[in-house]
Amino acid sequence: MHSRVPDRTTFADIRTALQLLVDRHEALRSTIEPGPLPRQRVNSSGSIVMCVRKLDSAADEQVIDALREVGGQTLDAEHGPTVRADVLTVASIPRWVAIVVHHMFATARTMDVLRDELHHVLSNLRAGTDPQEGLDPAQPLARRIQYERSAQGLLRADRAIRHLSGVIAQMPNVLLPFREHHAPEPVVRQKLRMHSTAVTHAAGIAARRLKVPRYSVVLAAVDVVLSTYAGQDVAWTMYMDKGAVDRGRSLIDCTTQNVYAQVGSRAHQLFSQAVRRAWKQQFVGQVHCDYDYARLLEAHSDVGLDQRAWKSVNLWFNCRGTFRPSVEPDAHRLDGLRRRSRLKWEEVSDDRPLVAVEIRFLRPEACLDLWVGKELILPDDMVDVLQAIEELLVRFAVDGEVSLAEARKHMGAGAWPRPPELRRLRDGRWIDVEATRAVFQNFPGVLAAELEVVDAGPHQELVVTVESTERDITEARLRDHGQQKVRTHGVVLPDTYVVRRAGAGREAASTDERTTRLLCATVAEATGRPHVDAHASYRSQGGSAEQLPWIKMQMESRGIRPFDHECLLAPVSLGAVAQELGR
């Protein structure tokens, strides 16, 4: 970030203003802890390095060259100062201040806050007033970061997606920026042109697969934040595309253009070390690499990969299925969606989701995709990417050969929930066995609840067997406790209920027909539909009515942003995708 210095500003004023900003904002004092999983650490006192660069004149060419040189220097994200400032002087008079910050939230929006505060503090110092007078004591930078991650911020992002879906509906072949910052129009079009072909191609695939108009499939959010950094226009571009539905599976792709090339390069290197460690530990059944992965990582340094070598790295953690790369051309294109659409996906097992990781190192771009089943985890930033990859490796890639404690010891300390036990029925329903069992296990008077899948003609039915003692399950207790339990769990309910009374002494366990009917009636009242229509209703709706709450619960439990998933799935509903999968 750089800002013009007000007239009659001294070097002491600049240092005082910078120290005040560092003291105000905890984010400016965050550094990166090295290790298999780099983490942020907040220093009690931030360190500042201030250098002076002398310019012959205030010509734009000299200023731009100096700013580019400042931004091109490597910033040590582990041990170095948290803030570096270069003061550009002309005839020993400060004219510009260029500030380099290496915290992970350094987007154009937060840097605008710092620029405004720096200018405000310098103006107060020049006027001889209190430098903090007029500043928000609530630390707007931290508040901005907190807001963007809050429910209100996510709701605003969701509204932006809805707004953009309407724009794209009218102009399906054009991507328009939702937000621009100090960017000339040619730069905006140049940055968007890189992705428009991929999104259009993905929309065409989805339209042909689902036989719907193209604009009804593409639901994209484009956040183009353009700012002037190191004397050149750069962009942070993120788009989410509800398209590229190949064989009925949905894709949400995130491409991040790194604004801070040096900091991003260091983060990529740390990430590479984490992935390489996981690779060596043999946590997965198969590892497929399109290229010499070790040699490519050795070539990856703080200066990044050679810009002319547009390489890709595809690292598939195939503990649940296999990907077969296509032999078609265009394998090295930056166009990630087009390449993804040409991958031949083959599922090995129906009862477990697939875990795959694709890594693409492109300088200064970097892209990472984490697949869980047919849904894609969309990380917020590089730190979340590292946490997500560690969590995925521990929760899904450990398949009985390595204990969970051993995996955590190698991948870093942390406590993650137990991976869900998933079963998939022939009609496409994914059953979280433990979550469904817990619903009935928590009913009053229930000793045990077991689930089993029974073949019923061409379909499979989920049967729950509830064991209780006599007179333990009563209508009043079910109404008081049972309905709330059913409502608060977004699980797929069983098709058949069996309530058995536990035997005492020589008496054998027997089926309690009355309590079974009572349980069915309670569940039907709680869910708002008759139990006898449950299975048929699910099949007629393609699974959308039952699966949507469960999918939302699963996505939120994995840390995915709680967008309105009905908005993300509409107008192509989950039922249409499920029916396409069935065909």
Automatic annotation (TrEMBL):
Matching InterPro entries: CAT-like_dom_sf (IPR023213), Condensation_dom (IPR001242)
Example GO BP: lipid biosynthetic process
Pfam families: Condensation
Domain Condensation: 14-234
One function term, GO molecular function aspect: catalytic activity
Protein name: Condensation domain-containing protein
Native species: Streptomyces silvensis
Upper taxonomic lineage: Bacteria, Bacillati, Actinomycetota, Actinomycetes, Kitasatosporales
